[in-house]
Amino acid sequence: DTKATEGGLNVTLTIRLLMHGKEVGSIIGKKGETVKKMREESGARINISEGSCPERIVTITGPTDAIFKAFSMIALKFEEDINASMTNSTVTSKPPVTLRLVVPASQCGSLIGKGGSKIKEIRESTGAQVQVAGDMLPNSTERAVTISGTPDAIIQCVKQICVVMLESPPKGATIPYRPKPASAPIIFAGGQAFTIQGQYAIPHPDLTKLHQLAMQHPPFTPLGQTTPGFPGLDATTPTSSHELTIPNDLIGCIIGRQGSKINEIRQMSGAQIKIANATEGSAERQVTITGSPANISLAQYLINAR
Q1: Looking at the whole model, is its pTM more than 0.90?
Q2: I need a labelling partner for 104 at 20 to 30 A (CA). Which of 10, 17, 162, 286 fits?
Q3: pLDDT > 50? residue 3
Q4: How many C-beta neighbours within 10 Å does residue 247 have?
Q5: Mean of pLDDT over the chain
Q6: CB within 8 A of 92, min separation 6: which ones?
Q7: Nearest Cα to 174, choosing from 145, 132, 137?
Q8: What percent of the chain is modeled with pLDDT above 70?
Q9: Residue 7: is it exposed, middle or buried by C-beta count within 10 angstroms (0-12/13-18/19+)?
Q10: Residue 17, C-beta contacts closer than 8 angstroms, at least 6 positions apart
Q11: What is the per-residue pLDDT for 216?
Q12: Are 229 and 262 in contact (CB under 8 A)?
């Protein structure tokens, strides 16, 4: 009954948002004051997923009008953050407010509409940009829906999305997306380390330090030399070896296509890495890392990151 959303009958709805740590910090506010105010003024339940993940899930539950109120407060807060970040910046054009919703894939079809008709209608009537990700989020049956625009356009857009979600409830069981701790792929560019979160590359300060250390002591060795000589490091640094066991189903992502990933890890860490052959009946593979303690810890880090 679509009238339920427009009339006085208020249906309870849950909307999940995917946010980066920085955005979550802005929503929580000092000592949790901002989120407390949002909860009190909107009347919506606002839950923030635990964990030291670069991404967090913010769940907003309540009657539709409470949800719209909470969304408008979040959108305005992000707008404030954008204005604040622009005061000392040279950027002339103002970036739009962007929110990422997490929507069960079974509802995305209704949101897009036949031949994209529904999403086009939402874009045109609200002035917001709406994009539905083509792929599902890792280990889930949910997709990210990114909406951006002015706070007002975003609120209008959320209203229309809520109507669609109420009109066509999810089919079958939904496996919710749970952000993983920061073991995302790592990219090194311009002397900086970035972890990849969804479609974004996030600068990673701790990794940048590791990477810069690695670059000062290039572990790339001329062929024929077995142990890389680190300039500035005593060549007599004791080499030790470290053993890891890795589940068979994960070994592929460490080795990479034709060994490309494992070779990259060997080159970056300067450690020797041997992967034992699969043993009959065992679900794990033995991996031996040999080198200086620094090489080993970098190799371990890179393996874990993969």
Answers
A1: no
A2: 10
A3: no
A4: 9
A5: 82
A6: none
A7: 137
A8: 77
A9: exposed
A10: 57, 58, 59, 60, 74, 99, 100, 101, 102
A11: 56
A12: no
Average pLDDT over residues 129-155: 93
Residue 83, token pair as written in the block: 């204005």
What pLDDT digit, counting tens, does each position of 215-274 carry? 555 444 444 444 444 444 444 556 788 888 888 888 888 888 888 889 888 888 888 999
Question: d(Cα 66, Cα 80) in Å, to the nearest integer?
Answer: 21
Domain made up of 238-305: CATH architecture: 2-Layer Sandwich (3.30)
Residue 188: partners with Cβ closer than 8 Å, 6 or more residues away:
194, 211
What does the domain layout of the chain look like in residue ranges? 12-84+95-167, 238-305
The predicted structure's pLDDT at residue 206: 60
For the chain, the three-class secondary structure string (H helix, E strand, C coil) is: CCHHHHCCCCCEEEEEEEEEHHHHHHHHCHHHHHHHHHHHHHCCEEEECCCCCCEEEEEEEEEHHHHHHHHHHHHHHHHHHHHHHHCCCCCCCCCCEEEEEEEEHHHHHHHHCHHHHHHHHHHHHHCCEEEECCCCCCCCCEEEEEEEECHHHHHHHHHHHHHHHHHCCCCCCCCCCCCCCCCCCEEEECCEEEEEECCEEEECHHHHHHHHHHHHCCCCCCCCCCCCCCCCCCCCCCCEEEEEEEEHHHHHHHHCHHHHHHHHHHHHHCCEEEECCCCCCCCEEEEEEEECHHHHHHHHHHHHHC
Phi then psi for residue 139, to 5 deg, are: 55, 35
